Design the sequence.
């Protein structure tokens, strides 16, 4: 399998990626919402451009560093879904705003005050989205009165313009049934729309309602009043999306190619991919890392350089997977895995066609 690539290596299946990009673009057009993919999943400008060419209205980044790389590549509409705090970052944001339309999400008047100073200094208000906590309990206040009060407070700060509300229903990742996932998705949209209506009654008109992780985007997009979805992981999917029922092995597009380097016992298979190539996210859940076409191979644990897997007890083919065999591993969480590789090897129609630089990897500031 791909003898021209030495392992461990990141392999991106372009056919799968194109299909995933097209499918989510269709979700957006069908529901008449904007698609603003989160590029922290791939960190690759060429893939961001593919998403925009397929109809995305712009991109979402978490970090200024990611946004700078994407602006260098000509992406000119960026949502920084992260509170930007401190003078060094505000200076970089000012420079970025000269090259792209940039919106920022936040959940505090303190962060808004810094942005307001920048807006006044440059004579152009910084557009912000106020983050709402729809159940993940990360950033944001609960929907309704508490958020409406925050919106009013931030809207009164000179130099910022509150254009909308944003949420990430990250608790959907923990949903235990399809019904629960659908309910979280619906609430993600409805809670924000109701909060925006409350803000409007109190004099602050909001035009953007931005929702949607990969598990929830397809369903939150259907809620009337939602204007934008921001899935990221959908471009590659991973075993978490498979567990949640929104992906299958066939729709996973980023795999770690690994070689068997040890068979110390009939059932144990040691691979040359550990935590330097894969993430321990999801460790302990069944199928947290899967091997394409090998449902009877179960990853047990990762050290830095070793992935230790086990063939199912009593499996007929203990002779399978001798040293030197190659396997394609589907990670439990695609985004941090991309952050571990300088380049991605791209395959199309089963052939290795090119390499892409993971240009925004390590952009933590
Ligand atoms: C603010 C924000 N929006 C969108 C996303 C994309 O979600 P997902 O990775 O489920 O596609 C993330 C992911 O962490 C996020 O933090």
Sequence:
């Amino acid at each position: 399998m791909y003898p021209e690539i030495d392992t461990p290596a990141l392999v991106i299946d372009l056919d799968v990626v194109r299909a995933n990009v097209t499918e989510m673009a269709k979700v957006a057009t069908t529901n008449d919402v904007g698609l603003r993919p989160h590029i922290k999943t791939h960190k690759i400008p060429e893939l961001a451009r593919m998403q925009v060419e397929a109809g995305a209205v712009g991109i979402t980044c978490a970090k200024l560093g990611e946004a700078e790389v994407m602006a260098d590549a000509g992406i000119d509409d960026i949502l920084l879904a992260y509170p930007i705090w401190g003078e060094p970052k505000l200076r970089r944001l000012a420079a970025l705003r000269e090259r792209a339309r940039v919106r920022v999400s936040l959940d505090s008047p303190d962060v808004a005050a810094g942005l307001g100073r920048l807006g006044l200094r440059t004579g152009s208000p910084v557009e912000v989205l106020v983050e709402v906590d729809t159940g993940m309990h990360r950033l944001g206040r609960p929907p309704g009165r508490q958020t409406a009060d925050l919106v009013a407070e931030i809207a009164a700060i000179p130099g910022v313009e509150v254009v909308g509300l944003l949420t990430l229903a990250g608790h959907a990742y923990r949903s235990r049934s399809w019904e629960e996932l659908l309910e979280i998705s619906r609430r993600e949209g409805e809670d924000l729309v109701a909060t925006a209506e409350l803000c409007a009654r109190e004099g602050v008109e909001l035009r953007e309602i931005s929702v949607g992780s990969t598990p929830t985007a397809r369903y939150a997009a259907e809620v009337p009043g939602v204007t934008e979805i921001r899935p990221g992981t959908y471009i590659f999917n991973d075993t978490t999306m498979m567990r949640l029922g929104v992906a299958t092995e066939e729709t996973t597009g980023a795999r770690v190619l690994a070689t068997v380097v040890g068979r110390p016992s009939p059932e144990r298979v040691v691979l040359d991919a550990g935590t330097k190539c894969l993430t321990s996210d999801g460790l302990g859940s069944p199928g947290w890392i899967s091997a394409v076409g090998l449902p009877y191979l179960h990853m047990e644990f990762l050290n830095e350089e070793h992935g230790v897997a086990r063939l199912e007890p009593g499996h007929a083919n203990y002779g399978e997977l001798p040293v030197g065999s190659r396997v394609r591993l589907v990670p439990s969480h695609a985004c941090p895995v991309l952050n571990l590789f300088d380049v991605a090897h791209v395959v199309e129609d089963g052939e290795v066609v090119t390499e892409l630089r993971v240009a925004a990897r390590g952009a933590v500031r």
In short: The mean pLDDT is 97. The pocket of pyridoxal-5'-phosphate is lined by residues 38, 60, 81, 168, 213-214, 230-234 (CB under 6 Å).
